[in-house]
Amino acid sequence: MVTGQRRRYRLVARLHDLVSLEWPVYRAGRAAGVAAAGLRPGSRVLDVACGTGMTLPLARAAVGSGGVVVGVDASPQMLARAQRRIDRRGWRNVSLVLADAAHLPSELRSGTPFDAVLFMYALSVIDDWRRAWQEALGLLRPGGRMTVVDLSLPAGRWRPLSPAARLACLAGGSNPHRHPWRLLDSGFTDVTHEVLRGGHVHVVSGIRSARLPEPAGG
Length: 218
Ligand SMILES: C[S@@+](CC[C@H](N)C(=O)[O-])C[C@H]1O[C@@H](n2cnc3c(N)ncnc32)[C@H](O)[C@@H]1O
Prior knowledge:
Strand order of the largest sheet: 3-2-1-4-5-7-6
Order of helices and strands: HHHEHEHEHEHEHEE
Bound molecules: S-adenosylmethionine
Number of helices: 8
Strand content: 15-25%
Number of strands: 7
Shape: globular
Oligomer: single chain
Number of domains: 1
CATH topology: Rossmann fold
Structural class: alpha/beta
Distance between the termini: 21 Å
């Protein structure tokens, strides 16, 4: 079934990188997220809802040629652009999986667990985001790092920018009231929370405890 969000990204894939405000706004969160994820040479990292692969160069640079980067996305159009990025650079240790993040394929579940999982501007977009979280959590090794970079409306003296932020969220299909980083409130240690761009971008990262938290309802 092609859901609303997946249909949206089928349509916007071609223009996504041009109109996504990447450099003035969102790049800072992406870079901070990869830094917070504590990737090392040789790490295995999963980028959930990787889109056109804008995080892949940062992740690949951090894990080097001896690491593994896997990107998952439900949109073939977005993944086609990510694949072009990979092909241009000739990376052999970066691969893509076409899948709904809420129903990850068994090939991922049966493989070696990941050292790090990234949700970059993703959980506020994915329809069944709680299930996507549980799926990814199941692929993260105990002691591995979960990193969420996502959006809310600007706060404090930046509040006047809220209409612009709301518009950007609307364009990207993102729900700025979801605050999905709160999922790190239980079952994680060493949680860091960086707030950028006047409260519009949140970068939250934590280490998965050995005991998994109970899935939250709703
Ligand atoms: C705002 S874009 C972010 C893309 C990328 N993470 C980035 O930082 O540039 C959201 C992405 O989520 C993907 N997406 C939406 N619903 C999804 C789902 N259920 N499973 C996997 N990917 C999904 C879209 O195809 C799109 O590529």
